[in-house]
Every structure is written in structure tokens, then in C-alpha cells.
Amino acid sequence: MKNLEKILVAIDFSDSSDKAFNTALFMAKKFSARLVLVHVINEPIDLRGFYVPHISFDKLEEEIRAGAEKMMERFCRNHFEDFDNYETCIVPGIPYQEILTIAQDTQADMIVLGTHGRAGLDHVLFGSTAEKIVRKASLPVLTVRLSEE
Ligand code: AMP
Description:
Elements: E1 6-10, H1 15-31, E2 34-42, H2 57-79, E3 86-93, H3 95-105, E4 110-114, H4 128-136, E5 141-144
Parallel strand pairs: 1-2, 1-4, 2-3, 4-5
Helix pairs in contact: 3-4
Bound molecules: adenosine monophosphate.
């Protein structure tokens, strides 16, 4: 493995991704690596103008995006004190696909993510995003488990 220069951490604002973030930050400091925080806005089902033509889905999407950006700003304010070697990336789509694409586009050296997200499926070993990324990624993936899972 080449030097660890860029670490992608997948943030869905769950306790599990919080823990993954702490691990990623620890590693970024140790290796002087850059952190790329990625949040994927799950694609709302595309019902544009189908049932309720008077509702603007473009407006709804704009508001969802603005809300996601606010959450990410708050997250960064609360989690970064003495570290500024990071960037954030918010995109709509299917989480595992977007995370893998951004990992490739940003030339990340490692992906860090929680074993579970907001769906809270504690009975399965991995959540579906985690499982798909572990199966499909061509770069190293570090999964971080919440201790109480
Ligand atoms: P899951 O497999 O969906 O239970 O989630 C496992 C981990 O994948 C979470 O702890 C996050 O690190 C990451 N993840 C899940 N959904 C998203 C998302 N929409 N955006 C960014 N990361 C996500």
C-alpha cells in the first residue's frame, strides 16, 4: 500500500458514522493525511409531477440539499478543533455507488465507515452500504463498529 495521504470517511450523521469519523480523524493526524467527508443524500423516489403535479420537487430537492449542507457544517464545527486539512462533499444518489465514485475521483487511499448506519439493523453483521462497499471497493476499507452493537 502506498502512503496514506487521503482518507475518505462516510458520514450519515449516525452514532456509528460518528465513531468511524473519530477513527478516521485519529489516522489523519497520525499520517498527516487529508480527510474527505462524504455525505450522500439518498435519492428521493422520482415521482416528479406524477401524483401531485402542483408540488415542485426541484424546490424540495433544493431544501433537502440546503438542510444536508447545514448538518455537515454543524458536524464540522462540533468535530474539528485543531484540524483543518479536510474537505466535504455532499452529493445525491445511492450511497455505496457515490462513495466508491468519490473515492476514485479524489484518489483516496482508504475508506472509513461505520458497520451500521441510521437504519439501525443491529441483527445483521453489516448494513447494506457497508457490505456493498467492502465487497466492491478496490481500495482498503476500514469498518468501525459501535461497541454496544
Ligand atoms: P449502512 O450500511 O447503511 O447501515 O451504513 C454503514 C455506514 O455507511 C454508516 O455508518 C456510514 O459510515 C456509511 N453511510 C451509510 N449511508 C450513508 C450516506 N447516505 N452517506 C454517507 N455515508 C453513509
